[in-house]
Amino acid sequence: MGNELRKTLPARELVEHEHATPASAQTARDVALAELEGFQVDQPPLVHKVISTIPTSEVNIAGAVAAAAGFSGEVESANIAAEETFQYYWTARTDAGHIVDARMVKVETDRNGEVLRTQVLVTA
Question: Residue 16 gets which letter from DSSP?
Fold first, then answer.
């Protein structure tokens, strides 16, 4: 069961910022800089390409009827790519007196640059 569940986890690949799609990179940058206004951004973003797959089963009608009747039916499973997204991570900081205020912004986009989710982590 563990092996079957593991097949459903997204595949992550670290990519160079320049290898992400231009539309997604620009959109993610605009969103992140708006969240980090007034902060010193430490470095270029860390970028992950994430590919999610969904295992599906294809059953022919004759096989399904035979399996339902208790005879051996054939079931073939196949994986289809469901979604490919880019996740961008920026870190930034600012001095707030004797405390360093640090933030990490995650922006996830599709290949066309549409923002799917954002998340801001704050420490102080």
Answer: -
**Nearest in space to 45 (alpha carbons), one of 57, 53, 33:** 33
Please list the residues that pair with 12 across neighbouring strands: 50
> Quick one: residue 25, left, alpha or beta (phi over 0 = left, psi -120 to 50 = alpha)?
alpha
Q: Where are the domains of the chain?
A: 2-123
For residue 116, pLDDT beyond 90: yes
To 5 degrees, how large is the angle CA 83–CA 44–CA 102?
100
Query: What number is the average pLDDT over the span 10-15?
Result: 88
Instruction: Give pTM, 2 decimals.
Output: 0.69
Instruction: State mean pLDDT over 89-113.
Output: 87
Can you tell me the distance from the alpha carbon of 10 to that of 49, in angstroms, rounded to the nearest whole number?
10
DSSP element (H, E) containing 108: strand 99-110
